[in-house]
Amino acid sequence: MKLEQICANFSYQCIKGSMDVEVQDIIYDSRKIKKGVMFVCLTGAVTDGHKYISEVVKKGVSVIVLEREKEALQVPDGITVLKVSSARKALAFMSAAFFHYPARKLVTVGVTGTNGKTTTTHIIKGILESVGKKVGLIGTNGAMIGEQKIPLKNTTPESYELHRLFAAMIEDGCQYVIMEVSSQGLKMDRTVGIIFDYGIFTNLSPDHIGPNEHANFAEYLECKSILFRQCKCGIVNMDDPNYDKILQNHTCHVKTFTTNSVEKTDRNIDLMVSYIEPINENGKLGMHFYINGLISGDMRIYIPGKFSVYNALAAMLTCHLIGISDIEIQKGLEKIQVKGRLEFLPISRGYTMLIDYAHNRKSTENVLSALLEYHPNHLICVYGCGGNRSKLRRFDMGEITGRMADLCVLTCDNPRNEEISDINADIKVGIKKSKGNYVEIDDRKKAIEWSILKAKQGDIILLLGKGHEDYQEVKGVKFHFDEREVVREILRDIDEKISM
Predict the structure, then answer these.
(1) pLDDT tens, 27-58?
(2) CATH assignment of the domain containing 75
(3) Strand partners, 290
(4) Taken in order 392, 394, 395, 396, is the CA torsion positive or negative?
(5) Strand 142-145 to strand 253-258: parallel, antiparallel, or no bridges (unpaired)?
(6) How many distinct structural domains can be found in the chain?
(7) What angle do CA 43, 49, 54 make, to 5 degrees?
């Protein structure tokens, strides 16, 4: 594609060379440079693309996009140089053009919030697919295009990868794309230029605040709010105390949902819940609730916890606005199971086993609160914490599980370059603060096996932290470890021993 076409929708200054040059590809990683491509000098927390200009020149780059004009002095004649105010924004606009504006050819749904993004995207996808729609998905669990699963480095990929995925979805016949829009993705301009058909706000609590993420909660909130200046219709949880701040300066038409319909009878709410109860059907946990507003009727979702009702409301309201009937929404909702999000393992042994990705204070507290509503005989948590990550998270996890669970089984969860014993020592600080009970079994498979052998009728075993992940990262190496497979192996071995 000609450079002039790629740069049609943003401001730039051509300070060297010609715009009449053919661009084979757009690259922002100097290691991937080949002859005839454009190199975009991105600046970030870890590195600065301007440092690699001399390297990409030697590799035969055709175009360089940069932010600092003085860096152009090292570029020889014959290479086009464009100066822009923001390389990240330029990359987003150029990527959209390079892939022929694929987002415009899809119904786009973006979901933002601290918790619930993954589950909400999967619920929407599941409902749409239940009525024969072809749907692409992008988020924490990776990208899905038909049967193809593509691992992603970030929840919201860099803009070039994002538009490439959109184009691949269209090629595969997708009509919709449902994606998680992270605060980092918004902050780093990965979605600039996309006008989502629907933007969803789930909830907000302090998270991702630190040197390489957000400076403070105010910045975190502001970044989340960007989505509602980039969508046509905003779908917002009115029960969250920050909903009005999220909508500050919004440019979209707003639709709302709530579980507190009695308290908000004076408000114009689009979807309300009048009744909620937990259900347990032979160890399969879920929620039964009645809704009214734009959709009315009895609903069931087989994911436990009130937060699952919130996620369902966001998804149902979105699907209604898309044009799916109430009965089709109801049927689709009952089939939903999200990998690694309070995922039920059908073990049929008198107790319940669930897998969940919760690995911070708020999400763990939410999950445990939800499970305690089912009044388990004992609640057993099997978990660890990630190595080379915040120690505060370990103290928090220990304190919350020590207070809310009957037993904590401390084990391995991506120790990376740390020792498991050191990580668990930090967790125990929190457990001892809450005077909880614990055992330590470093090998995660053995920890799960121990819990299964100890489980009694009516117990709930919760495998925390891994969720959708199918690996353990130890000393720089990722080893295959899928808890679903591990549980099946353990149960098979137990049955073989019993039958001998």
Answers:
(1) 999 999 999 999 999 987 678 999 999 999 99
(2) 3.40.1390.10
(3) 275, 298
(4) positive
(5) unpaired
(6) 3
(7) 155
Q: Which domain holds residue 304?
A: 102-334
| φ/ψ of residue 386, rounded to 5 | -70, 140
Of 64, 98, 132, which one is at a domain's C-terminal end?
98
Structure-block tokens of residue 390: 């915040």
Do 141 and 163 fall within a single domain?
Answer: yes
416: amino acid identity, one letter: R
- Token match 């014959």: residue? 78
Interatomic CA distance for residues 142 and 479, integer angstroms: 18
For residue 363, the domain's CATH number is 3.90.190.20
What is the per-residue pLDDT across 60-83, written as a single tens digit (0 to 9) for each?
A: 999 999 999 999 999 999 999 999
User: At CB < 8 A and 24+ separation, what contacts does 315-318 make?
Assistant: 315/120, 315/123, 315/124, 315/127, 316/127, 316/271, 316/291, 317/235, 317/255, 317/257, 317/270, 317/271, 318/109, 318/124, 318/198, 318/200, 318/235
The last residue of a domain, from among 66, 98, 130: 98
Same domain assignment for residues 473 and 409: yes
Task: Identify which of 478, 479, 474, 400 has the alpha carbon closest to the alpha carbon of residue 434.
Answer: 400
Placement of tokens 């909830």 in the chain: 203
Tell me how many degrees the CA angle 176-178-184 measures, rounded to the nearest 5.
140
Residues 72 and 107 in one domain: no
Give per-residue pLDDT as tens, 415-427: 999 999 999 999 9
pLDDT higher than threshold 80 for residue 383 = yes
Which residue, chain included where needed, has tokens 């975190």? 220
What pTM did the predictor assign? 0.87
- CATH code at 111? 3.40.1190.10
Does 487 share its domain with 367?
A: yes
Name every residue whose Cβ is closer than 8 Å to that of residue 319 and which is 6 or more positions away in sequence: 124, 127, 128, 329, 332
The Cβ of residue 73 has, within 10 Å, a number of other Cβ atoms equal to: 9
Q: How far apart are CA 338 and CA 302, in angstroms?
A: 10
Residue 33 and residue 131 in one domain: no
Rounded to a whole number of angstroms, the distance between the first and last alpha carbons of the chain is 68
Same domain, 233 and 211: yes
